[in-house]
Amino acid sequence: MKQILECVPNFSEGRDMSIIKQITDQIESVEGIKLLDIDPGAGTNRTVVTFVGEPDQVCEAAYLAVKKASEVIDMRYHKGEHPRFGATDVLPLIPISGITMEEAAEKARGLAKRIGEELDISIYCYENAAFDEKRRNLAYCRKGEYEGLSEKMATEEGRPDFGPATLNEKAGAIAVGARDFLVAYNVNLNTTSTRRANAIAFDVREKGRIKREGNPLTGQIVRDQDGNPVMIPGSLKCVKGIGWYIEEYGITQISMNLTNISITPVHVAFDEVCKKADSRGIRVTGSELVGLIPLNAMLEAGKYFLRKQQRSLGVSDSELIKIAVKSLGLDDLTPFNPREKIIEYVMAASDEQEKKLIGLSMEDFVYKTASESPAPGGGSVSAYLGALGAAMGTMVANHSAHKRGWDDRWESYSNWAEKGKALHDELMRLVDEDTVAFNRIMDAYGIPAKSDSDKEKRAKAIQEATRYAIEVPLKVMKTAFDSLELIREMADIGNPSLISDAGVGALAARSAVMGAHLNVKINAVDLEDRQYVKKVLQQGAEIEAETLAREREILDIVNSKILTDNS
């Protein structure tokens, strides 16, 4: 999976957009970065910018943005309603896909170190990047704001994690961290009563409601020994929420911030609000996403609702998203366009991914393969054959999960279908990766070789590209071989009416393995590391032999069942 980080820096300027444009121009100057949103606030004198990309690209864009902000924003003259202590006030990195929180935290610390050392700006690491448990809290890091920085940094407790321990008067300080993705999510109600909407919000939000003696609305507030109100916690962790009336739609909503969707995902929040609303005689009519959401959150929502229906989860991403949208009522108020609301899809819209082979129609793929271009070649076609083979096994599993009379077995078949989906998704990715590998070789041969050092660089690049051109079809072989376990299982226990489809899946997987093996062998000819070549050729031969044996086993099962049916 491609690694994607989101960065949401807050800059202490919300009135002069020419200043913000200078900063965002720096962000967009980094190749591969997608600028998603610019949200200025005049009263707060603060602008929130959102951009995404691969980790190294995001860190470079963030560094350039901080550098420019330190040049064009002067904290000595800044005034605004929002707490702040720097020109770039906060700089969080947020893992979206393919990267763990731990990895994001390491990236944040590396970025913090670079900013501190190269730009001479004091850095406090917060949230998951914090070195000190107290500094996980942003408010603690920013306590005293800009005006109190000099005094704070003079103490041991207030020393920054990176950069100078003396105030950079113009730039101030920055809180750099890694945090979970925050989803702004509203649930629509069939009432105009803000009081009732708030009651539901208090039921579900983590903070809950104030505890009172006797009457929960008018009774005396219960306080702790320090005089603070005692709270009755709500039912959902990592959720903030209030009820409000939306005049435009003539309804109330529960407006929630889901601060950690790995703990309380969107679908759990939705169902809990439905339950609490129903207990108060109120009906949920749908919901609304404010801003963007990671793809995986939508896929998990789709799976959640399919699981409740005892339906197979091994369906396409587009089907999972459709189920999620309909189940959550995300198109209740306005049409929900996944291409505009899902982060990965927004990125792909302006990416070269739109030109990938796997995005072509079947007809276009055939004609492109038949053209004079050497790519796509046998490696890509082998991967595509493998994807079709795994897809056939997945199809049998999905149909078996819905077969009348087999309701008690749906989950087992669903698990097989999910495995199949992961396999054919990986093989589809390898369709394009084989072309990437071919282009790497062509690029390496195109490196100028005028000097001895140039020749050495060119030779090294050719060898590295050749090795990669071996690894990709070898991965195709392994993945296509793995799909035979699914196909054999479906031939044995799947819906009998689809037995021939399991057989076709086995033939496609076999051809994928053999075709990819040819690519491994021909690319190995040009690799100088003969020890590696020997190892790879042995692996390839073993996989092919095992594949042929398993194919024969599957076809024997298929043919015996067909003969039995015809006798």
Overall 3D shape = flat
Strand content: 5-15%
Compute the number of helices: 17
Record field, number of beta strands: 13
**CATH homologous group name of the largest domain:** Formiminotetrahydrofolate cyclodeaminase monomer, up-and-down helical bundle
Summarize the structure.
This protein is an alpha+beta fold and 567 residues long. It is built from 17 helices and 13 strands.
What are the defining features of this structure?
single chain; 567 residues; alpha+beta; Formiminotransferase-cyclodeaminase, Chain B, domain 1; Alpha-Beta Plaits; Four Helix Bundle (Hemerythrin (Met), subunit A); 7-stranded mixed beta sheet; 4-stranded antiparallel beta sheet; 14% strand
Structural description of this entry:
By secondary structure, the protein is α+β, with helices and mostly antiparallel strands. The protein contains 17 helices and 13 strands. It has helices at 17-28, 55-72, 101-119, 138-142, 149-153, 194-204, 266-279, 295-308, 317-328, 338-341, 343-349, 362-370, 378-401, 410-445, 452-493, 499-524, 530-566; strands spanning 4-7, 10-11, 34-41, 46-53, 88-97, 122-127, 173-178, 183-189, 209-210, 231-232, 239-246, 251-258, 284-290. Strands 1, 2, 3, 4, 5, 6 and 7 form a seven-stranded mixed sheet that branches. Strands 11-12-8-13 form a four-stranded antiparallel sheet. Strands 9-10 form a two-stranded antiparallel ribbon. Helix 15 (452-493) packs antiparallel against helix 16 (499-524). The longest helix is centred in the C-terminal third of the chain and has 42 residues, at 452-493. The radius of gyration is 29 Å and the shape is flat. The mean pLDDT is 92.
